[in-house]
């Protein structure tokens, strides 16, 4: 169940760019589907046997109706065979509905097996299985496996677990699984596609540019590797920072966002004696090694690092004559559970200050990209604050509403020879607590609000149809509050670890596994220890949240790596552990587990929506929201509280908040 959920989150976004900015759309659909499956666990109709057919339909639909951006800055999207893609109002509901159907079938299968075991033992096995699921997915990511590998794992597991009766349905399911594997194999066999831990990377040599390599990431034009001569002629902005440095003293250069190598090749051509090239995606780096016409990564003066840029700055003690933030635009999200892209923590006020700390006394900093007007003003204003000097703003071509620009500033003040110092409005900088540079103001975009509202309405309707009258949920209001709070706790853990240790797939996998291990530890404690009364557990939970809120993130960033990891683990996972004890104690005595689970599910989905409030408040304030939600859970559920030793919660009631 967890493996299929994670695979769908990543795979659908790689084929339909409309999902690139809708961070937890498929995640919420998965939660809803799992909930429907559990609500229908006692139903006469078998859903699990039909899950492969729903999965095949989803794979066929996504492959048949992709959405690809034709060119950066272009509003036009392209589907298969050059056709126009389906409208957003058609493609997204179909993807949502088919995802719900897939996960409902798997969820019902899990629920029916779960009921055969003593609850605590079943919960232990479920959590161990979830840990295996994230482990398998992480191994496949490490191996850069294409989607056919994910499909094979899912298909084989389905084939083992599917009921053999009636035989015709089993045969239909096997045919559907074969179709899934064939469809994913055809996509995986595309000669120009490679699968990194972050993207579907499509690379090809454009016929009108001999020697160049054009790269798409998740169906979005990402970068093009050009020879130096063509860069100088057609993309001169790469050379702008070197107008303001003494090339004779250009000893050490740091390039963050090195990609396929254009920026590194230019640095070498301008006399750099050593270049540290940092790129988070190993596939992009490999493409640059093999295909860049100037072969910059083969130069002995270059040291390549596969790492998150902010994390590299944490670890490195080296100082540089020139630091470049080179087109750091990942085009992809940190995880399906958060609103962050891979580079968000690289573009905050604190990150720019940390970069300055790595400059030599006479060093120079430059950043360049295609900026919307407010972004140019935001970054330029932040540099003005960090360096106490007005940056040089050299503008290039215009691409739709974005303007090519290079911002350069010296550690000692304004750069020399600047003919165009920045003059613009000062905007609030992005910060480590509010790392949303791409938001012009502190608000939730209208598109997000509309789609999330429709998702919640659809969820209420589906739960009503699957679980009966909603008035029965009223007695489980406290469980709804718990579901919302736990979802926010997990999100806060993901973004905190991304800041402290890097926005890499490996860090994300460790956080997911850490959440599951915390749940498993809570189960083991509940099995072996008589817990104190619920009021005491709630008090401990609120105390742990208060401590996590009181300790600022910048204090953790100052710690060495091992102490930082230890303190971060305690602050992040102590509330998660205690929350599981609280949930288990309450769920042990519910009158109707299906209705109680429906309340918890709707609460978790509301929590997924509430996560968007971080766009207004910042992430630290989410801990206050979590504390309020648990306080409301305590108040609304007081008449249900007992001091008896708990049994574990329904596994998916908690997994919905963990995965």
TrEMBL record:
Pfam families: Spermine_synth. The keyword Metal-binding does not apply. InterPro entries: SAM-dependent_MTases_sf (IPR029063). The keyword Transmembrane helix applies. The chain crosses the membrane at residues 20-40, 47-70, 90-111, 123-142, 170-190, 447-467, 505-523, 535-555, 561-583, 590-610, 616-635. It comes from the Bacteria. Gene3D superfamilies: Vaccinia Virus protein VP39 (3.40.50.150). Keywords: Membrane, Polyamine biosynthesis, Transmembrane, Transmembrane helix. This is Spermidine synthase. It comes from Planosporangium thailandense. The lineage of its organism: Bacteria, Bacillati, Actinomycetota, Actinomycetes, Micromonosporales.
């Amino acid at each position: 169940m967890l493996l299929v959920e994670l695979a769908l989150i990543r795979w659908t976004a790689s084929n339909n760019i409309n999902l690139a900015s809708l961070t937890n759309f498929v995640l919420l659909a998965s939660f809803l589907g799992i909930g429907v499956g559990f609500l229908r666990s006692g139903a006469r109709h078998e859903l699990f046997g039909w899950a492969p057919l729903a999965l095949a339909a989803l794979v066929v639909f996504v492959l048949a109706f992709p959405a690809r951006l034709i060119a950066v800055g272009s509003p036009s999207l392209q589907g298969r065979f050059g056709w126009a893609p389906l409208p957003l109002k058609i493609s997204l509901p179909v993807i949502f509905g088919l995802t719900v159907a897939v996960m409902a079938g798997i969820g019902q299968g899990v629920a029916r097996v779960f009921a055969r075991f003593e609850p605590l033992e079943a919960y232990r096995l479920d959590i161990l299985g979830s840990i295996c699921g994230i482990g398998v997915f992480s191994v496949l990511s490490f191996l850069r496996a294409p989607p056919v590998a994910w499909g094979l794992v899912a298909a084989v597991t389905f084939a083992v677990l599917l009921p053999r009766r009636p035989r015709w349905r089993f045969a239909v399911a096997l045919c559907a699984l074969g179709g899934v594997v064939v469809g994913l194999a055809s996509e995986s066999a595309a000669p120009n596609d490679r699968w990194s831990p972050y993207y579907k990377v499509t690379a090809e040599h454009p016929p009108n540019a001999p020697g160049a390599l054009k790269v798409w990431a998740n169906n979005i034009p990402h970068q093009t590797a050009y020879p130096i001569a063509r860069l100088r002629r057609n993309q001169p902005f790469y050379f702008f920072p070197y107008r303001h440095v003494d090339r004779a003293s250009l000893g050490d250069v740091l390039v963050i966002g090195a990609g396929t190598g254009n920026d590194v090749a230019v640095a070498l051509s301008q006399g750099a004696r050593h270049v540290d090239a940092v790129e988070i995606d190993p596939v992009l780096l490999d493409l640059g090694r093999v295909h860049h016409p100037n072969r910059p990564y083969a130069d002995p003066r270059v040291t390549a690092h596969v790492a998150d840029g902010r994390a590299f700055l944490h670890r490195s003690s080296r100082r540089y004559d020139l630091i470049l933030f080179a087109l750091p635009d990942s085009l992809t999200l940190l995880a399906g559970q958060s609103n962050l892209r891979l580079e968000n923590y690289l573009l905050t006020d604190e990150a720019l200050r940390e970069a300055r700390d790595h400059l030599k006394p006479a060093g120079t900093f430059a950043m360049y990209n295609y900026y919307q007007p407010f972004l140019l003003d935001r970054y330029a204003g932040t540099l003005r604050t960090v360096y106490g000097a007005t940056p040089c703003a050299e503008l290039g071509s215009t691409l739709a509403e974005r303007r090519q620009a290079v911002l350069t500033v010296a550690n000692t003040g304004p750069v020399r020879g600047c003919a165009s110092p920045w003059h613009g409005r000062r905007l609030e900088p992005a910060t480590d607590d509010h790392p949303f540079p791409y938001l012009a103001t502190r608000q939730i975009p209208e598109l997000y609000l509309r789609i999330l509202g429709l998702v919640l309405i659809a969820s209420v309707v589906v739960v009503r149809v699957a679980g009966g009258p909603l008035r029965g949920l009223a007695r489980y209001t406290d469980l709804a509050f718990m579901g919302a709070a736990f979802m926010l706790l997990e999100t806060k853990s993901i973004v905190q670890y991304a800041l402290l240790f890097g926005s890499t797939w490996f860090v994300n996998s460790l956080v997911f596994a850490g959440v599951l291990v915390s749940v498993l530890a809570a189960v083991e404690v509940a099995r072996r220890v008589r817990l104190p009364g619920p009021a005491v557990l709630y008090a401990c939970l609120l105390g742990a949240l208060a401590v996590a809120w009181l300790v600022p993130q910048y204090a953790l960033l100052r710690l060495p790596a091992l102490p930082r990891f230890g303190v971060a683990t305690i602050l992040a996972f102590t509330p998660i552990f205690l929350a599981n004890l609280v949930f288990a104690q309450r769920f042990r005595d519910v009158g109707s587990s299906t209705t109680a689970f429906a309340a918890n599910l709707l609460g978790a989905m509301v929590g997924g929506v509430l996560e968007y409030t971080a766009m207004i408040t910042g992430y630290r304030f989410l801990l206050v929201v979590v504390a309020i939600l648990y306080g409301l859970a305590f108040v609304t559920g007081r008449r249900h509280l007992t001091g008896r030793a708990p049994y574990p919660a329904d596994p998916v009631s908690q997994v919905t908040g963990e995965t």
